[in-house]
Specification:
globular, 242 residues
Length: 242
């Protein structure tokens, strides 16, 4: 049985906050029935956190209430993934993020003549310390399929089964602007962005063998903060309610 089709998007989110026009290709996003029942709650949390990050410089409310310097002020020149991909934080969510990641990766790959549809099916999603308990798991992971579909006939030209377990690198660079998608050190194991970015990267590399696409990277201001993040990921604690 095919998963419930949650969204079929051909235009979707056209511009990121940085003013980058994503590729004008057709992208379909489907969610499993279980994820479809949960996606509204997931999106509500993610939108609130994205709004906090853009307004306060961090999406960690414990940090907002503390004296710690905020991530955005420590890394003033970084082009953050959320703002690059989704112009309005109110639109930030699982389906729109998947669409924008596919479109931006295709644009960067220079596939101007690509006129087929890319269909993304997300069957399972886990984020180790997400504040929504039904998403919590032993690791950040995503399971699903990627397909290239003939836009005229609807015939499936190519299929890739994808299972990812998030592996993420670090950059110490206050002006990081690529090639990968930049996330804050509060994101891995707590938000959907890094694992969905990893999922799209692997899916596109399966559909287009031999080509490389952008994945997630955590941008930090010092090696010390990188070690602190690695320790947090290795020793997770129960997240606060959000």
């Amino acid at each position: 049985m095919r998963p419930f089709v949650a969204a079929i998007v051909t235009a979707g989110i056209a511009l990121g906050a940085a003013g980058v026009a994503h590729a004008d290709i057709a992208v379909e996003v489907s969610l499993s029935e279980k994820l479809q029942k949960r996606v509204a709650r997931i999106d509500a949390i993610e939108q609130r956190r994205e709004e906090d990050f853009r307004r306060h410089g961090t999406d960690d409310r414990n940090v907002v209430r503390s004296s710690r310097r905020f991530i955005r002020s420590e890394l003033p020149g970084v082009q953050w993934a959320g703002e690059l991909l989704i112009a309005d934080a109110a639109d930030y969510g699982v389906e729109n993020l998947l669409v924008a990641l596919v479109k931006e990766n295709i644009r960067r790959a220079g596939k101007d003549g690509f006129d087929d549809t890319i269909r993304v099916t997300l069957n399972r999603l886990g984020v180790a310390n997400h504040s929504l308990s039904v998403l919590r798991s032993a690791s950040d992971y995503a399971v699903g399929t990627f397909e290239i579909v003939d836009s005229a006939s609807g015939a499936v030209k190519q299929t890739a089964e994808v299972r990812t377990s998030l592996g993420i690198g670090f950059e110490v660079n206050p002006h990081y602007d690529g090639p990968d998608f930049a996330f804050a050190d509060t994101d891995p194991s707590r938000r959907v962005g890094p694992v969905l970015t990893d999922f799209v990267q692997e899916g596109l590399e399966e559909l287009f063998p031999g080509e490389e696409f952008a994945g997630p990277v955590v941008v930090i201001h010092s090696r010390t903060s990188g070690r602190a993040l690695q320790n947090r990921l290795a020793n997770p604690v129960a997240p606060a309610s959000f």
